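Today's session is about reading a structure prediction critically. Students often jump straight to the picture, but the first step is always the sequence itself: look for stretches that repeat, for charged clusters, for runs of hydrophobic residues. Only then move on to the predicted structure, which in these notes is written as discrete structure tokens rather than atom positions. Here is the chain we will use throughout the hour.
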Amino acid sequence: MKANILAISVLAGVSLLVGCDNREGSGVAPTGTAEKVPAADHFMRGLAEHCGEAFRGEVVRNVPEMDEDPFAGKELVMHIRECSDERIRIPFHVGDDHSRTWVLTRTDYGLQLKHDHRHEDGSPDTITMYGGDSRSGSGERQEFPIDEETIELFRANELPDSVTNVWAIEIVPGERFMYELSRPGGRLFQVEFDLSNPVDEPPPPWGATP
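Below is the predicted structure for this chain, in token form.
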């Protein structure tokens, strides 16, 4: 009788320990399971795989077409130039115009995208550091609805059509990278880069150190 009671007690203790080890937030993963990487971190890691590399791209969607298209006939090159766990800076070169840099920053909730625009002397453009925050998405696509700071900036600079902007970035490492701007009413701009074919490193973006 005493032996049976002892055996039951041991089994109960083992079950309790197993239950504690597998509870949410315990930090102990069940045997055989892979680490679950947040989508934002997975996305940043995919970009970081190409850190230091540059790639040529082309506009694949531009509706409605602009009367004066600043991208028409220009060589388009993006350069994944600076990478850390918290921030990745990607200059976007349009011919001899080196004014644009996409800045991706890890936040507590996901990712932030900002557009750093500079003059040739390195000084900030009037319309700069605009963008939005992504609080959901996948390891391959993140969308960035416009933030309040950017809405105020666009309104102050008489850009009413842009206050509903949504930006997005997609990446499939080794295959393609896509930058997208969309807004209700049919505006859609997409430029896609071939990640399978690196090109020579472009000059530093305006305002950056060599």
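Discussion point for the tutorial: The CA atoms of residues 130 and 149 lie 8 Å apart.
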